[in-house]
């Protein structure tokens, strides 16, 4: 396998470098490659001192659920990373759980030498660029500067239906609005989220950009800001999210300027960061099946929770004591039709979209997974979902991008109410509270959950 990979790299590099006399000389492309390591020898970290690489909150979350820190939690070997740097490679990010690193170079033949290193198990090209990615693509000259703290009374207003469908109003009424819970949102940017009045009372703990650390996460795509509003808006009388009292980490993994496999690596790094800072629930309104290079496109047999690195990572999240809610995708009426990655992962909640009348949205991606599991897991409102627009005004959007965060906030509220349950148990009672639990299918999954019903189910569980 390793020898075949080396040959493939050499072939690609030589093909790109070939020029005829009549052709202009082209600047070499810049490549990002995923390097798989054989082990973690030389790591400066030890399982005896997990506090050096996991926060106290992360350790307490695991302790509460009886989860031990294991070898997958150890950071990638710094010795190996330094060896790659000494060879002239740029090191962008690592994955502890997968024991990988993403490196960059314009000399693809150099990767042949990397493949020969005794600690390298394999290499995969995950991106290429004519120019390096931009720092920020959104002009913020007209960004909002004022914050309005004058709230006019408690009311869900236009967000009422999307919360009430899940019987979330009742759970809120019982006093569970996400207090003490930490939610990580992994997305493509959070344009103006630091300036919109409706987020004045939203507890944002911090941000991190895994696409380009030099970018302004609040000057990139509006998508993540829309998503945040579904969960964290806290403007009574105007817009209330499903977990308005939760705290948030805003993480960027999606490169909105291209669609390449490296975004899966960005996503994995964001998930591991969320784990390390102590997140309880994650929302990812992202999915992959169709890439810029057709050779990278998914085939149906790959939707099995194991083939793609982001799906393998997603399938580990519950074992670390967290819950992932991931949008099922918007391909229901298209050529592909199915869920993508990482919605195919095991032990997560893949979320489809329904309309206000509770019928399935035509665009909502269908299951099953290739290995026969029920997908999507559940559904929530994803048509005419109330969100904040870029100007901070109430708007409406369609997509599983919004059904997923609407559900995410309720998951956080439910777990706040039932702290004695672990991640697997919380997901189980959510599925069992679904209106199609006894007859799940590839369209609705287990159906529309009833979060107050799930709460009453969880109260009697030990």
Brief characterization of the structure:
This protein is α/β, with parallel strands linked by helices.
Distance N to C terminus: 48 Å
What share of residues are in beta strands? 15-25%
CATH superfamily of the largest domain: Peptidase S8/S53 domain
CATH topology of the largest domain: Rossmann fold
Q: Pick out the low-confidence regions.
A: 1-25, 138-154
Number of domains: 2
Radius of gyration: 22 Å
Q: Count the E strands.
A: 15
Helix and strand element order:
HEHHEEHEHHEEHEEEHEHEEEEEHHH
- The CATH architecture name of the largest domain reads 3-Layer(aba) Sandwich
Q: Which structural class best describes the helix and strand composition?
A: alpha/beta
Please characterize this protein's 3D structure:
By secondary structure, the protein is α/β, with parallel strands linked by helices. It folds into two domains: 87 residues, 2-Layer Sandwich (Alpha-Beta Plaits), CATH 3.30.70.80; 300 residues, Rossmann fold (3-Layer(aba) Sandwich), CATH 3.40.50.200. It contains twelve helices and 15 strands. A hairpin with a 4-residue loop joins β2 and β3. α7 packs parallel to α10, α10 packs parallel to α12 and α11 packs across α12. The longest helix has 18 residues. The protein is globular and about 60 Å long. The termini are far apart. 51% of the residues are buried. The N terminus is likely disordered.
């Amino acid at each position: 396998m390793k020898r075949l990979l080396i040959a493939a790299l050499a072939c690609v590099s030589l093909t790109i470098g070939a020029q005829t006399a009549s052709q202009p000389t082209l600047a070499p492309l810049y490549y990002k490659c995923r390097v798989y390591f054989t082990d973690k020898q030389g790591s400066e970290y030890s399982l005896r001192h997990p506090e050096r690489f996991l926060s106290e909150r992360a350790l307490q979350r695991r302790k509460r659920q009886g989860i031990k820190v294991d070898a997958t939690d150890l950071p990638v070997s710094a010795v190996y990373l330094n060896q790659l740097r000494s060879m002239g490679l740029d090191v962008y990010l690592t994955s502890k759980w997968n024991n990988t690193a993403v490196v960059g170079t314009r000399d693809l033949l150099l990767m042949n030498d990397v493949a020969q290193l005794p600690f390298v198990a394999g290499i995969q090209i995950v991106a290429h660029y004519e120019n390096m990615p931009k720092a920020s693509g959104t002009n913020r000259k007209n960004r909002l500067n004022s914050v309005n703290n004058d709230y006019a009374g408690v009311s869900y207003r236009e967000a009422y239906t999307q919360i009430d469908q899940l019987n979330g109003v009742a759970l809120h009424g019982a006093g569970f609005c996400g207090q003490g819970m930490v939610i990580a949102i992994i997305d493509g940017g959070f344009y103006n989220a630091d300036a919109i009045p409706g987020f004045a009372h939203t507890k944002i703990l911090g941000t991190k950009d895994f696409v380009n650390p030099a970018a302004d996460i609040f000057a990139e795509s509006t998508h993540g800001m829309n998503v945040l509003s579904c969960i964290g808006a806290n403007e009574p009388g105007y817009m209330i999210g499903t977990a308005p009292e939760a705290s948030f980490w805003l993480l960027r993994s999606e490169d909105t300027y291209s669609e390449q496999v490296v975004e899966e690596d960005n996503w994995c790094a964001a998930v591991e960061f969320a784990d390390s800072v102590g997140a309880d629930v994650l929302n990812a309104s992202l999915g992959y099946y169709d890439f810029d290079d057709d050779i990278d496109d998914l085939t149906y047999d790959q939707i099995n929770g194991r083939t793609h690195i982001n799906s393998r990572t997603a399938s580990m999240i519950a074992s670390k004591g967290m819950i992932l809610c991931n949008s099922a995708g918007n391909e229901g009426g298209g050529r592909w039709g199915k869920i993508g990655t990482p919605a195919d992962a095991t032990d997560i909640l893949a979320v489809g979209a329904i309309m206000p009348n509770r019928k399935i949205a035509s665009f909502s991606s269908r299951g099953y997974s290739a290995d026969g599991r029920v997908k999507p897991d559940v559904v929530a409102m994803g048509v005419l979902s109330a969100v904040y627009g870029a100007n901070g005004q109430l708007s409406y959007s369609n997509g599983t991008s919004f059904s997923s965060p609407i559900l995410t906030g309720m998951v956080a509220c439910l777990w706040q109410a039932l702290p004695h349950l672990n991640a697997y148990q919380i997901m189980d009672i959510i599925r069992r509270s679904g209106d199609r639990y006894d007859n799940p299918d590839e369209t609705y999954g287990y159906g529309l959950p009833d979060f107050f019903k799930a709460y009453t189910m969880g109260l009697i569980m030990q």
